[in-house]
């Protein structure tokens, strides 16, 4: 993050005032007024460059963007966005100064961030506040009363940082103007380049592991067999283990989808006909069987307290602890005469999402 502040020239503004003073006011007062004019133009150095770094699975409670201290003698003013629509520079509901303020209140700034590789965009809300000479707490950044000798602070709440959808480098530029009470032309402009370096330890390291198959895609036979002359059924087990990437998850969200032609359950399909065979999926977790509905998310709670077993994941040198959650595929009895003979195939897609993590 690089913050630069620049102040506009006041030559024309003060020239008119000085001419008025020379004509109507005792000349000895000119020096005092000129000194006051000089005090409204402080020399503000460039702020240090700071990048904000965090992991999606460990979002900070609130992140300071920067804090700018300044002193403007005898000038009442405040900070405003340039627009209430342009989120590329920062948009605020109010783009003008207000005289009074609400205690312990913040100005909301909508700012659009762009990921540098995918060019994905998202708007986050920043909070702007100031401390002034009349109140020890914080108030809106555009409140002018008592606002000399104060500090401006920008922050991003955790719920906003959590909105970043993927890891990557997300950048934005915020532009704020400093206005004097009663004036329309900005006395100064602050331009802030913000970079969010976002990682996702869970996405990079978490794994759904099938011990019987290693790195290969599991191939499972439904084990169909005759019950009698007219009926068949089957039952198959698939060993599966979940590793949360080392983020100490308290819960995991799961979803299982299938290659169906119709219905809400799971099916295998005969490629050269419309025939299908239905089967059901259940997951064994913590000693209980969880029926799975196709495409519907469900939660595995208390994962951090669940029984685990060591596994050596592909590409890793050390064993990690994973939670065993074997799947059971059950084919209910069906009439053989209603199905054409041949090979039936289908796919299952298992998705694991981060739920909550331990503090």
Can you tell me about this structure?
This protein has about 350 residues and is mainly β. The protein has 2 domains: about 1-5 and about 45-200, Sandwich (Immunoglobulin-like), CATH 2.60.40; about 205-355, Immunoglobulin-like. Helices cover about 10% and strands about 45% of the residues. The protein has 4 helices and 24 strands. It has helices spanning about 10-25, 30-40, 160, 200-205; strands at about 1-5, 50-55, 60-70, 75-80, 105-115, 120-130, 140, 150-155, 170-180, 190-200, 205-210, 225, 230-240, 240-245, 250-260, 265-270, 275-285, 290, 300, 310, 320-325, 325-335, 345, 350-355. The strands form 4 sheets. Strands 1, 2, 3, 4, 5, 6, 7, 8, 9 and 10 form a 10-stranded mixed sheet that branches. Strands 12, 13, 16, 17, 18, 22 and 23 form a 7-stranded antiparallel sheet that branches. It is elongated.
Q: Main beta sheet: strand number and arrangement?
A: 10 strands, mixed
Q: How many β strands by DSSP?
A: 24
Low-confidence stretches: 1-47
The CATH level-2 architecture of the largest domain is identified as Sandwich
What's the CATH topology label of the largest domain? Immunoglobulin-like
How many helices does DSSP assign? 4
InterPro entries: CblD, CfaE_adhesin
Protein name: Fimbrial protein TcfD
Short description:
The chain is mostly beta strands. Helix content is 9%, strand content 43%. InterPro entries: CblD, CfaE_adhesin.
Can you tag this structure with a few keywords?
10-stranded mixed beta sheet; Immunoglobulin-like; 359 residues; mainly beta; 7-stranded antiparallel beta sheet
